[in-house]
Specification:
Elements (H helix, E strand, L loop, with lengths): L1 H61 L8 H14 L2 E5 L5 E4 L15 H10 L2 E5 L9 E9 L5 E10 H52 L15 H50 L7 H30 L7 E4 H10 L2 H6 L3 E5 L6 E4 L1 H18 L5 E9 L2 E9 L32 H11 L4 E6 L2 E10 L6 H6 L3
Parallel strand pairs: 7-9
Antiparallel strand pairs: 1-2, 1-5, 3-4, 4-5, 6-8, 8-12, 9-10, 10-12, 11-12
Helix pairs in contact: 1-2, 1-4, 5-6, 6-10, 7-9, 9-10
Length: 490
């Protein structure tokens, strides 16, 4: 699998990139070669023409005093040729070489004949320029520039040929090309090495992610990808992958805990119901005690019913069914109506109730039935865990465009490490606070789910025995007082 990831993604892209690099480098090399060759020829051409012009002027100046084959003229040709690196010779009007820049007195070129075609073109065009061997005059290719030597009457007295060996002209350029090719090959080799190393570096986290995904499929959620040193797209992907893995591991842990809690919550009442029912049937329980145990069976059956209903409600909340109904209602009225249902329980526990609500109406947006359940669960939770003969305080106020509702009880302090967990399914922050067997550990979880569906928040604090749950709701337009409406942007 690792090899497949490399070959199918990074290696293929790497080969494409390398191929494009080679093509671009080749095009650049060819372009440089052609441009450099043209530049070198042009420079040498200008140099040859300059030399030919200088020789013509000198030959025309001395022609009246000595012949074109004179020794002084030949020495001057040799001096010029030595300084320029060219080969120079002079011809008479018939094309016979009469002087040469060779220092050897017995020059092999003197007396030789230039082809009539070359002389004819030179005379016709007034000059000659060609990369040629002069029809066998030279053994190799020379870049040849020729001009006529004019006499005093303007007639042609002879011809100057200035020649530069082709292998000399392109030999330097060929050496440069060889160096260029060598450097290009070295750069290409380095590109291949570094590209392969980078390919492996980029493929490593993907291979690890593939392996981790396979482990997830087998139920092992502990797999993680090693941190990536760079903060680029791959680093962001790895961070997101590990965050996802953490979430999957937490969800799996919660799922197992949920199953264990459900099994426990179901097994306890079912065991009691089955045991007492068997005792009634086989006569183990005396007739005088039957009513007592039937009441216990009824209580446990109701507890099972509440647990099942809570689980169904929890599933609907998780799946977003039913959809939240947008309503506008009086929050204070909803709280008052909900508090009335707890009158008997408050009196039985010797508690007092303090309601702190503003005089003006606070109208909010949301699902009234769902918010009623939120208030009910929070008040029920507060009464259940409050100490005897203490005060239950419910407060409502407006702030920053939201309505706040706080439910406060006085009892045992919830440990700080338990506060982030009390809204989880079946979690009980302090088991000693939960002696009431009617609780199933889903009330606060559903409170949070309902408020999350309303895009609202809930907070909890617990210090010195005072525990306060506070949640927010969105104010309706009619729920804002006059001063708030004046400050609203138009």
């Amino acid at each position: 699998m690792k090899r497949k990831v490399k070959r199918s993604v990074f290696f293929r892209n790497y080969m494409v990139t390398t191929g494009m690099f080679v093509v671009c480098f080749f095009v650049l090399g060819v372009t440089m070669f052609l441009m450099g060759r043209a530049y070198l020829i042009r420079e040498k051409q200008q140099s040859l023409y300059a030399t030919a012009g200088e020789v013509c002027r000198y030959a025309e100046a001395v022609h009246g005093e000595e012949d074109l084959g004179g020794w002084d003229l030949r020495m001057n040709l040799a001096a010029i040729a030595q300084s320029t690196g060219d080969h120079i010779f002079l011809c008479d009007r018939t094309g016979t070489v009469v002087s040469s820049s060779d220092r050897n007195a017995a020059s092999p070129y003197i007396g030789r004949q230039i082809s009539a075609a070359v002389i004819g073109e030179l005379e016709k065009e007034g000059g000659y320029e060609e990369l040629t061997d002069l029809d066998g005059f030279y053994e190799g290719m020379y870049y040849v520039v020729a001009e006529p030597i004019r006499g005093g009457d303007g007639g042609t007295e002879g011809y100057v040929f200035v020649n530069y060996a082709g292998e000399g002209l392109f030999g330097v350029w060929g050496g440069f090309i060889a160096v260029f090719i060598l450097i290009a090959a070295g750069l290409l080799a380095l590109a291949i090495v570094f590209g392969y190393a980078n390919d492996r570096r980029l493929a490593r986290p993907l291979n690890e992610m593939a392996e981790a995904a396979h482990r997830f499929a087998r139920g092992d959620y502990s797999a993680r990808v090693s941190p990536y040193p760079d903060e680029d797209e791959i680093g962001t992907l790895i961070q997101a992958f590990n965050t996802m893995a953490d979430g999957l591991e937490r969800n799996e842990s919660r799922r197992r805990e949920f199953i264990a809690n459900v099994s426990h919550e179901l097994r306890t009442p079912m065991t009691a119901i089955a045991g007492f029912a068997d005792g009634l049937l086989d006569g183990t329980i005396p007739p005088s005690e039957e009513k007592k145990y039937l009441q216990t069976i009824s209580s446990e059956t109701k507890r099972l019913g509440r647990l099942v209903r809570s689980m169904l409600d929890m599933a609907r909340l998780r799946d977003g069914d039913p959809a939240r109904r947008e309503q506008t209602f009086d929050l204070g009225e909803t709280v008052l109506q909900t508090m009335l249902s707890f009158e008997d329980r408050v009196d039985a526990k010797g508690m007092t109730v303090d309601l702190n609500m503003p005089e003006d109406t606070i109208r909010v947006r949301g699902d009234e039935d769902a918010i009623t359940r939120v208030v009910y669960n929070l008040v029920d939770n507060a009464i259940k865990f409050a100490a005897w003969s203490t005060a239950l305080t419910v407060s409502i106020w407006k702030e920053n465009g939201k309505a706040y509702t706080a439910v406060q009880d006085v009892g045992q302090t919830i440990p700080p490490e338990e506060l982030p967990l009390i809204f989880d399914r079946f979690h009980k922050a302090d088991r000693s606070r939960s002696q009431d067997r009617e609780g199933v550990g889903l009330g606060l979880y559903m409170v949070r789910q309902i408020l999350s569906a309303h895009d609202q928040d809930i907070f909890v604090t617990s210090e010195n025995g005072v525990t306060v749950f506070t949640f927010t709701l969105a104010l309706a337009e009619g729920g804002r007082n006059a001063r708030e409406r004046e400050n609203m942007p138009s």
